């Protein structure tokens, strides 16, 4: 697969409301594309159309210039799809579940065993190979469902909310796995409404709102276009607030407001308070925030935390006047 394109896709389930409309989208081999938008925006419909599981009312999907619907039975063998509410079979073991799908894709016993072992190891499930799916935690079941999408080494991965149910460590591991898969030339589409999961991970972003594609492009170019230059940070200061304000003025940090460090504390007096929670817009990259933290420490300011409040993609969404995305 070199690239997959949606061309003027339109689809409605009831003939009244559009699920997607005028959708033009390109996914290239080796690219990770984030399909973002609020719940009900049309993300899942778009994935089903890309997977050739839903025929659009008009428009078409092309695989390397060929109509995907006409060749859908052959193309489906080249796709790994994780849909909403993917079924798992509770009486199967984890290994047996993967072997079942390997056999569905025509793998011989030797190939299937090797691939199952690879995926169980990749998703940290080797110790659960003989466990019944009903006995697995929600996060383990989700990892197994994602592993199933990769059993046949597809050329295109379509993942609908793949991080659902995963703890922070498992989410980071999933990001690493998907980046490694993309580096082998696989195109990946990840649908999510939690934007901070996608920061620093995806190459391209497509933002859908009420079935329409509003933003599509390289992540860095999109961030630049929407002038996300000042990132909002929280700085927790237990001593030296006045010195911190001086440093921020020198470093062109834009203080939005000062809040109490803990609930129940009185609001700090801007002119006299020695501690508080600052909401600050810092210009530039994370390296700029690291430099600011260094300057605060050198000024004998006690900082117990400095953290970015929103992801870059959340800032893009905010700049568009939207507030529906987590």
Strands, count: 14
> Which superfamily, in CATH terms, is the homologous superfamily of the largest domain?
P-loop containing nucleotide triphosphate hydrolases
Annotation field: number of helices:
10
Helix-strand pattern: EEEHEEHEHHHEHEEEHEHEEHEH
Q: What global shape is seen?
A: globular
Poorly predicted ranges (pLDDT <50, ≥5 residues)?
none
Measured as a percent range, the helix fraction is 25-40%
Q: What is the radius of gyration?
A: 23 Å
Look up the CATH topology of the largest domain.
Answer: Rossmann fold
Calculate the terminal CA-CA distance, rounded to whole Å: 33 Å
The CATH architecture of the largest domain can be given as 3-Layer(aba) Sandwich
Q: Can you describe what's shown?
A:
The chain is an alpha/beta fold. It has two domains: 3-225, P-loop containing nucleotide triphosphate hydrolases (Rossmann fold, 3-Layer(aba) Sandwich), CATH 3.40.50.300; 230-319, Alpha-Beta Plaits, CATH 3.30.70. It is built from ten helices and 14 strands. It has helices spanning 43-50, 72-75, 94-104, 109-122, 138-149, 168-182, 219-225, 241-250, 286-298, 312-319, and strands at 3-11, 20-28, 32-36, 58-63, 66-67, 79-82, 156-160, 187-192, 204-209, 212-218, 230-239, 254-259, 276-283, 302-308. A six-stranded mixed sheet has the order 6-7-8-3-9-10, with helices on both faces. α3 crosses α4 (109-122). The protein is globular, with a radius of gyration of 23 Å. The chain starts with a strand and ends in a 7-residue tail after the last helix. The mean pLDDT is 90.
